[in-house]
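Contributing: when you submit paired examples, paste them exactly as shown. First protein:
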Amino acid sequence: MRRASCGAGMKPGLPQNPKILVTRTDRIGDLVVSTPIFELIKKKHPKSHLAACVFSEHCELVSGNPFVDEVILYEKKDAQKNWIGQWRFAREIHAKKFDAVIHLHATNRMHIMSLFAEVPIRIGYNRRAPWALTQVFPYDKKEGLKHETNYLTDLVCASGFSSQPAEPVLPYVPVTQGNRLSVSNLLQHLGVEANEPIAVIHPSASDVSKMWPVENFSEFLKQYVSGKVRWIAVGDAKAAEQTAIISKLSGLLVLDLCGKLSLGMLAALFEKAKLVVSNDSGPAHIAAAVGAPTVSIFGRWQPGMNAERWKPNGKKAIVVTPQIESIPVAERAFTYVDRISVEQVLDAAKKVTP
């Protein structure tokens, strides 16, 4: 089994028209920031058959990507939740005769699966069953010195599957005409005029340490002045309670679409938005990827969790972080999301909107 270090510039022994599998079975935002890798690989290997293995619930984030030829769905909580299902999945991958697999996120399941699937070239990081890989690269993402997309770019370049791009490649999430129509019909049903400008907030997050206080969201809505907009809240079903509080405190009607949109419809909604304000979360990455003016709020500062590594990338995306430079690192709390002021977010919103 070969081992390589980053920067080795190894050139894989691939056929002229290789079949390449890229896996990213992780959170929404993690997948979105990985999408530039599809373009990088395809540009280096234009005649390749490039497949993406993702969680089934994330299918709409990559289905329709012009650089992805096939989407393979992974059912961690269903068909592949036990080792029997895992073995069957490995045999399905084996039958597809991939020449190489690149694991963008290290998991025992994916690494071992590719070994059982007998994929000749298996590339990934030195963590979680690295013995199942043929090319292993150091895992230094926890240092948080650069963006996740840049770490992944280094991986595919060092393994010979891409060249360093002259310009940064931004994340991409496809938006279908069907989802555009579904969102338009839904908004019309809720009384939103066809040409009425909308702005979206996402007040929830996967962890409370990422959540800007609802009082701040409500104050932001009251102070935001940029023409008349219809405010809409998105998130999972649990975010409906936060939305109700924000609406009450702000005195503004906030349309509650929490738990009512697929990821594809969410992307279509963001595409229509004049502004998106979101906590550190997957939806913020989707908004940035479809080109929406996006303000994301980051309270975590630790290396590996910080905005330097995880901020949404987009032409109209901006991140707001707490001002904690005066606090010694040894004395810092886990998060300072509550120290991000309404004024900071208002200033950021002005920068990304006309």
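Second protein:
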Amino acid sequence: MTRTPGFSTLAVHAGAKPDPATGARATPIYQTTSFVFDDADHAASLFGLKAFGNIYT
């Protein structure tokens, strides 16, 4: 079965080349983030579970 890729498929992969090491066709999506703390004390209170907030995803 051979199908010609549609416009959307071509657009999303435009300019992308397969990774030479892995052969991956598409750029991976990393579903992670980082958080900013007001200062070191703020970070310490979050990691010490003394304050509510985001520290890890």
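If you have annotations for the second protein, write them as plain sentences, like these:
The two ends are 41 Å apart (CA to CA).
The chain has a mean pLDDT of 88.
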